[in-house]
Amino acid sequence: MPAADKNAKLADVAGAAEGAQAEGGILAFTREQELSAYRAMLLIRRFEEKAGQMYGMGLVGGFCHLYIGQEAVVVGARMSAKSTDQFITGYRDHGHMLACGMEPRRVMAELTGRRGGYSKGKGGSMHMFSREKNFYGGHGIVGAPAPLGVGLAFADLYRGDGSVSLTFFGDGAANQGQVYESFNMAELWKLPIVFIVENNRYAMGTSVERSSAQSNFSMRGTAFNIPGRQIDGMDVRAVAAAAREALDWCRAGKGPFLIEAQTYRYRGHSMSDPAKYRSKEEVQRVREEHDPIEQVRARLLAGGIGEDELKQIDAAVRRIVSEAADFATNDPEPDPSELWTDVVL
Amino acid sequence: MAELTLVEAVNRALAHELEHDPAVLLLGEDIGVNGGVFRATLGLQQRFGSARVIDTPLAEAAIAGVAVGMAAMGLKPVMEIQFSGFIYPAMDQLINHASRLRNRTRGRLTCPMVLRAPNGAGIHAPEHHSESPEAMLAHTPGLRVVIPSSPARAYGLLLAAIRDPDPVVFLEPTRLYRLFKQEVIDDGEPLPLDTCFVSREGRDVTLVAWGGMLHEALAAAESLASEGVDCEVVDVATLKPLDAETILRSVEKTGRCVIVQEAARTAGFGAEIAAIIAERGLYFLQAPVRRVTGYDVVMPLARLEGQYLPSVARIADAVRKTMEAE
Question: What residues does the Transketolase-like pyrimidine-binding domain cover (chain B) (predicted)?
Fold first, then answer.
């Protein structure tokens, strides 16, 4: 599938931030690095918009949690990571898969529950994995992937291959007890793990202010001696800078590192969200003033890149997404015999 | 060849796997320096190092979660939970991750981990130190559940559990840890994980039991022999996946069945066995299937323990009633 190969190349930005100079809390990206970030974030944005449309058309089974607005977090982290590092996250996971270079058409086909999906149409939106891309899910239970990330990091240390586990969770998950059991073990054993709190301000419909006694999540590791950074998660360069610092810390054998990326989700928690917990104006303001993709676009234009070139990227991304949607619509459904596979009976 | 207790046999099996497979790791509370609350891991940290025999914080949920992460990376963690009643905080990880990793990843990843825990009564303590949660674990798709009844079976079944690519909950009957010794050949030979064992052959009635209760069933069989009742005793050993064929074959031969379980009665694993006999062996039966079980109460403290646990007398009584029915 030539189209699929192109997708993979377009999306996986592992190592793309290499060589960028750190200054004032960001990495000063070259034009090529800005373009990498732009392409990767745009692919996630367009993919998620299409996923939302397809959900509306009744094509997506199960849940669907969109990442729109948060694209800079995973893209920035991936740009400073190596492809051999592991990524693991919760249920808002499509962006992580695409940033890790998983094929958009197979991710979309999983949303629609088709044979060609990453989990052969049985896992759905929240449950996809790729050993080749070192993506370890995609898990539905809030906070519970944190100890799994610690286990991945333990294996990294045990094998001594210098890999790091990047373990993502949200502000809601940060109030789960298992997260702190994980912090303790990670620091106790000096494991190579970067905990990344994607603080999008709302745990479903409950704001950070209404749920969190300590709302500075970068300090949540303080009691365990885990260093933390609170950063602007809407600026991909700031995320890349913090991720580089954290990964260097881990690879030097100093143990875990915590990043709080302050971000925002434009869409509802899931596709059925009454949105009574925030105003339309609030959402509109973030979109207009802090959009992660528009920020890069503005810098590219200011740096002299032509509208034409950006339009070409946009067209290429739309082609990929549209091809993914076609595949996900027409691929056959799983055979009923699949009910009995991959389980100990 | 050595005469070993059950807990020593567990120790030998763990040592054997640590020695022969660098992917095998042990983790749990107090398993290293202290050698485990029942000394199942005694001496293993000294022998294999603290990188492989790991003392963890008191955090059952994260111990299980970390083990799942290790297993996803191809390591073979064997975690010890100090008592089976302490498994409950880890149920989230067992049910939501460990048991489902193979299915959720469509076979890309498996979860070769073992959760070991002492199970059932044995130290005269109430509640979580003495309970038998095997039915809720066996009810979980994707988990194997194994309960050995002797040193030799503990050794062979634990080897098989560690080598199995899927998660195994290995419940060790606390009461049997040091009850008796048996010859165990430390040769690395596993026992099958999908087989019931016929521990005593007989013609008149089938007693089905597992773990600690196997010995009450055998004692009842012994006492009934003097009354002229010839009992066959089946050791279930692996509850999930269950070897129904061995049980049905025995019931076909004897025509009668009494199931003995230490756990509370309602929705216990004995009910599953009774249902299978009803579905597939009804016409073998000359009498209704009977169950001798714990009661639907919280496991009590020492003075009432004898009231709670199925006794040789209760089992023998149930067998006599079964023999009377025609």
Answer: 4-179
CATH number at residue B247: 3.40.50.920
Q: pTM (2 decimals)? A: 0.92
The range of the structural domain enclosing residue B269 comes to: 197-324
- Is the residue at B212 inside a domain? yes
Q: A interface mutation test: which of B75, B105, B243 has the most A CBs within 10 A?
A: B105
- What proportion of chain B, given as a percentage, has pLDDT over 70? 99
Is it true that the peptide bond before B300 is cis, omega within 30 degrees of 0?
no
Residues B166, B54 share a domain: yes
Could you tell me which residues are beta bridge partners of residue B80?
A: B28, B116
Per CB-CB distance under 8 Å, the chain A contacts of B77 are 151
| B129 has catalytic annotation | yes
The pLDDT of residue A6 is 42
The answer for residues whose C-beta is within 8 angstroms of residue A136's C-beta and 6 or more apart is: A86, A87, A88, A129, A148, A149, A152, B69, B72, B109
CA angle B110, B115, B119 (to 5 degrees): 150
Quote the number of domains for chain B.
2
- Coil, strand, or helix at residue B208? strand
Residues B227-247: tens digit of each pLDDT: 999 999 999 999 999 999 999
pLDDT in tens, B160-181: 999 999 999 999 999 999 999 9
Q: What pLDDT, on the 0 to 100 scale, is given for residue A10?
A: 62
Give yes or no for B65 touching A (CB within 8 A): yes
Does residue A339 register a pLDDT over 90?
Answer: no
Reply yes or no on whether the pLDDT at A288 is more than 70.
yes
A167 in any annotated domain: yes
Residue B107 and residue B19 in one domain: yes
In a domain, B248, yes or no: yes
Q: Domain range spanning residue A302?
A: 3-332
Cβ neighbour number for residue B225 with a 10 Å cutoff: 14
For A206-251, write each residue's pLDDT tens digit.
999 999 999 999 999 999 999 999 999 999 999 999 999 999 999 9
The count of structural domains within chain A is 1
Query: Is B61 in Cβ contact with A177 (below 8 Å)?
Result: yes
